[in-house]
Amino acid sequence: MTCWDGLRNFRGRRPRGSTRCVTGIPLGRTAHRAARVIGTGGLLVIAALVSAPAHAEVAFCNNFPQPVFIAIAYQQPDGSWTSQGWLRVNVGTCRSFDSARHLSSFYWRAETDWYRDTSGKQVWSAWGEDRNFAVGDYPFGTFTFAHADQSTNTGRVEAFRRFSGPATATLTFHANGGVMTTTQAEAPGAPFSVDAVRVQLSDQKDAPAVTTARQGQTIWIRVVARVNTKVANPVACVAVVPQSTGKESSPDCNNEMRGTFAERGATLGWNFPLRINLREKQNRDVMDITGWVTANGLTQRGRASVEIYR
């Protein structure tokens, strides 16, 4: 998340050349210091997700202390890109775009309006760093742009973050600026479902989830499955793919953990310790983490993400 100093008269547009700061995950050493300053102003990580709609769609949930405005960009069958927004998500609520559009791969951007931080400075916050698309200019009215990856005279071009996963997902904005992604594959009537994939700093089952970690720090990936009917010999594994590679995860991971039998109503949990290192000269990256569970001839998955920084 990037926050911008708002002390200039911008006349409807976000100011260029404004002071930049980061909460959640730093983009470098200077940003890291800024993150420490802003992150200690009483904004605590909220680990619990706001309740999201149950049907198949991507929901944006807001535990950030300000309303968040969402834009998405997705590819059309002819290869062109369309951007759409702004979707207002108030504090403590969840909202989705048109439920008829079940996208498994798209880009998203989020912004806030102006607000005063804990020091009294007027700032605004934004999320997005992977690919540029056109968005509607400030203030946050509705817009739809065709050929959104090209320049536009009626809006502005901003960076979006990539999402790729199953049709049911929740992206939650936390109070510290981190964004947690949880996804669940759909399989009506399946003998089990993957209820959660969480990133934790300990192996305790009730440890709070985190959205950020330092490179080389031991993190724990907890995969939780709910049994709907009796299952035999469940197998779980996790795969980690840096978003910077643009690759997709597969269930061919080499860290399998096996179970025996589980009756209906049981909850299964596995903890996978990981240490993730960034590539040389890389200050940060977002890791897409997929937890796979196989039992009774069926494979289900859930997903989460964590931002790793030096």
Percent of residues in β-strands: over 45%
Note the total helix count.
1
Distance between the termini: 16 Å
Gyration radius, in Å: 20 Å
Compute the average pLDDT. 75
Number of strands: 24
- Give me the secondary-structure category: mainly beta
Biggest pleated sheet: 10 strands, antiparallel
- Please give the share of residues in helix: under 10%
Number of domains: 2
In N-to-C order, the SSE pattern is EEHEEEEEEEEEEEEEEEEEEEEEE
Instruction: Outline the low-pLDDT stretches.
Output: 4-13, 15-56
Q: What spatial form do the alpha-carbon principal axes imply? A: globular
Characteristic key phrases:
single chain, 310 residues, mainly beta, Coagulation Factor XIII, Chain A, domain 1, 2 domains, nine-stranded mixed sheet, 47% strand, globular
Q: Would you mind describing this structure in some detail?
A:
- This protein is mostly beta strands.
- The protein is built from 1 helix and 24 strands.
- The strands form 4 sheets. Strands 1, 2, 4, 5, 7, 8, 9, 10, 11 and 12 form a 10-stranded antiparallel beta sheet that branches. Strands 3, 6, 13, 14, 16, 19, 20, 23 and 24 form a 9-stranded mixed beta sheet that branches.
- It is globular and about 60 Å long.
